[in-house]
Amino acid sequence: MPRTLIISPNWIGDAVMAQPLLRLLKDAHPERPIDVLAPTWVAPVWQAMGEVDTVLEAPFRHGKLQWGERRKYARMLKQRGYADAYVLPNTLKFALIPWLAGIPKRVGYKGEMRYGLINVMHHDDPKAPRPMVSFYAALAMPPKRDVPLPPSLPRPAMAVDEQALAQALVRHRLDPKHRLIAFAPGAEFGSAKRWPASYFAELARKLMAERLETQIVLLGSPKDSEVTAEILALAPGVRNLAGKTSLAEAIAIIARADAMVSNDSGLLHIASALNRPIVAIYGPTDPNHAPPFSDRSASLYLGLECAPCRQRECPLGHHNCMRGIGAGMVKREVEKVLLKV
């Protein structure tokens, strides 16, 4: 039986927003198994998607061509019998793999000089980029200028089994009977995307003062240690799990959370795909480009004249796009998504 290969992006949020592409491919060929070649750190995201048959963890070092290793890996892929491949990263090195494997249909964006390697080539307009869900979903269709917008596409969807959820709660000593609110105060992209740590701390104090049994957990990677340390110093009752969970455990904890407060980050999009109540905080990025799709969600965005700048650091030095969103504003939205039915 022919199979489909998806080559995953390196970013967690992008992987989540690519899930509607898998839904469309499954609708077109329900009998065709879908495999995903993904970096180790992104693999748990794909493992939580029902359309995926097998996740193959990429053995390549980030940023390295590794020509010999790619040729060897391509020989293994050739034996799996792929009819088509969808190359989601825009780099040359990932487009090499399905070409070397002799996969007949190789779909992707123009990217990094990939003529010949990609033989069904799509184009995006850098001056008016497609929303991320549309960007990936378009690959299931013939290349064209106009693509469906997110409201007409399947929403990203992930699922966590009850056993994994229960194990994560036990391991990290979280009480399933008490309210659980998750904060994602980091942003891998850069500091411009981060709501100030002192604001997260103020929000935590307000929420815990109102309901003493509220459990607030910080989720993220070890790279967020400076931000989480500042929050803990200002709000001692918060639990820091950033860097202390695997991504699979973080996904399970988010699946149980009563609400999520997050910067524009991969964990935000995981919460969205798990259909959790979300308050998303945007500053240098456009919420229309990569919004949450939960039934209960709110996006806070001031839309300043300088935004969205899409820069890693605030180019003007004031960071007003995030500093202007107060803890009280966020708390009101948290209360709304918790109460909304």
From TrEMBL:
<dbReference type="InterPro" id="IPR011910">
    <property type="entry name" value="RfaF"/>
</dbReference>
<keyword id="KW-0328">Glycosyltransferase</keyword>
<dbReference type="InterPro" id="IPR002201">
    <property type="entry name" value="Glyco_trans_9"/>
</dbReference>
<dbReference type="InterPro" id="IPR051199">
    <property type="entry name" value="LPS_LOS_Heptosyltrfase"/>
</dbReference>
<dbReference type="GO" id="GO:0005829">
    <property type="term" value="C:cytosol"/>
</dbReference>
<dbReference type="GO" id="GO:0009244">
    <property type="term" value="P:lipopolysaccharide core region biosynthetic process"/>
</dbReference>
<keyword id="KW-0808">Transferase</keyword>
<dbReference type="Pfam" id="PF01075">
    <property type="entry name" value="Glyco_transf_9"/>
</dbReference>
<dbReference type="GO" id="GO:0008713">
    <property type="term" value="F:ADP-heptose-lipopolysaccharide heptosyltransferase activity"/>
</dbReference>
<protein>
    <recommendedName>
        <fullName>lipopolysaccharide heptosyltransferase II</fullName>
        <ecNumber>2.4.99.24</ecNumber>
    </recommendedName>
</protein>
<comment type="similarity">
    <text>Belongs to the glycosyltransferase 9 family.</text>
</comment>
